[in-house]
Amino acid sequence: MKIKSIILTALIAISATNGLFAQGSEKSKSLVLYFSWGGTTEKMAKMISSSTGGELFKIEPTEAYPTSYTPCTKVVKDELDRGIFRTVKSAPDFSKYDTIFVGVPVWWHTAPTLMTHFLEEHAADLKGKTVIPFCTYQATYRAETLQAIVDVTPTASHKEGYGTTNPNQYDVDAWLKKIGVKK
Q1: What whole-number distance in Å separates Cα of residue 130 and Cα of residue 153?
Q2: Dihedral through CA 124, CA 128, CA 134, CA 135, nearest 10?
Q3: Which of 115, 124, 153, 160 makes the best surface tag, with the fewest CB within 10 Å?
């Protein structure tokens, strides 16, 4: 009986260390907040969540963007030029989290205004939190996009962000280890 108890205790300790109890639970201390248009940013968000146990929260606009690439780029460029901000359907309860990963695609050389405006509106909710930006892109402007997220979350502390054209679990895990959120 004592051996079974020792084995059970060891299994619980191993599971807790690997984050198995944290995924999707209300006691999770990290949130993976993201906006994804084409699915690549969502793919990366799910990789981060899988490796950290962070809860996923997808930002959805109240008015959808066009689903075809060229019409979407025209709408996004117009919104950027005119300072138009779309609203989002809902927001997470930021009080439950210490660390918030924020992910976006690069749109016209920066983070989508949908997300930057949302983060500005929730600046008070992010005070004292750790914000970790990430992005996906087709060409470049990774650094500018990651910096845009940092700039609109001045009341938070920040860890080094990450951007990629084609997210894969190995590279995402290497980044998470580098910034000290995955062992």
Answers
A1: 10
A2: 20
A3: 124
